[in-house]
Write a structure and sequence with these properties.
The structure is a single chain. The protein has 166 residues and is mainly α. Helix content is 78%, strand content 0%. It has helices at 4-34, 37-63, 83-110, 114-144, 149-156, 162-165.
């Protein structure tokens, strides 16, 4: 058993991971429709990765004999202004998720939950990696500029999503 507070915050994180998945899926669909196969592939993979994260939280809660609530999800946006503002949105979202994971670590500290603190380290590292990848994407996008978006889309095929590394 883990504390009620930790079980609650882990259940809240399930919603955030599945929303992340749906958000990236919506972005992938938009990019696919706009004719960017490299960008959409990366986003489809990322959507899978976030879904897998949601499952990790579910399985951990079950492993420690806690209740799992499958959340209702709000609808993600369907339209994005352009590729750059979309990736800025990805970075902002990942920073929000990093804060959320740090919040879990804090609650683990407060409740002396060393098991969950140990388990959540995977996500602490994962967020460093994901934020760094999105910053690399934004750097490349800035180098390319709007005029070279075709080159950037091809370049996206060389940036592996976390999902394709597992
Ligand atoms: Fe952004 O990866 Fe899930 O937590």
């Amino acid at each position: 058993m883990i504390s009620k507070k930790v079980a609650e915050i882990l259940n809240e994180q399930i919603e955030k991971e599945f929303y992340s998945s749906n958000l990236y899926l919506a972005m992938a669909v938009w990019a696919d429709k706009e004719g960017y196969p490299g960008i959409s592939k990366w986003l489809y993979d990322q959507a899978e990765e976030e879904r897998m994260h949601g499952f990790k939280f579910i399985h951990y809660l079950l492993d420690v004999d806690e209740k799992v609530t499958i959340p209702e999800l709000k609808q993600p946006p369907a339209e994005f202004d352009n590729v750059k503002s979309m990736f800025n949105q990805v970075l902002k979202h990942e920073q929000y998720i990093s804060d959320s994971i740090n919040g879990i670590v804090k609650v683990c500290h407060e409740t002396n939950d060393y098991r969950t603190m140990n388990w959540i380290q995977y996500f602490v590292s994962e967020q460093i990696e994901e934020e760094s990848t999105v910053r690399t994407i934004l750097d490349k996008l800035n180098l390319a500029g709007e005029k070279n978006i075709f080159w950037f889309d091809k370049e996206m095929e060389t940036i592996r999503s976390a999902a394709s590394e597992d």
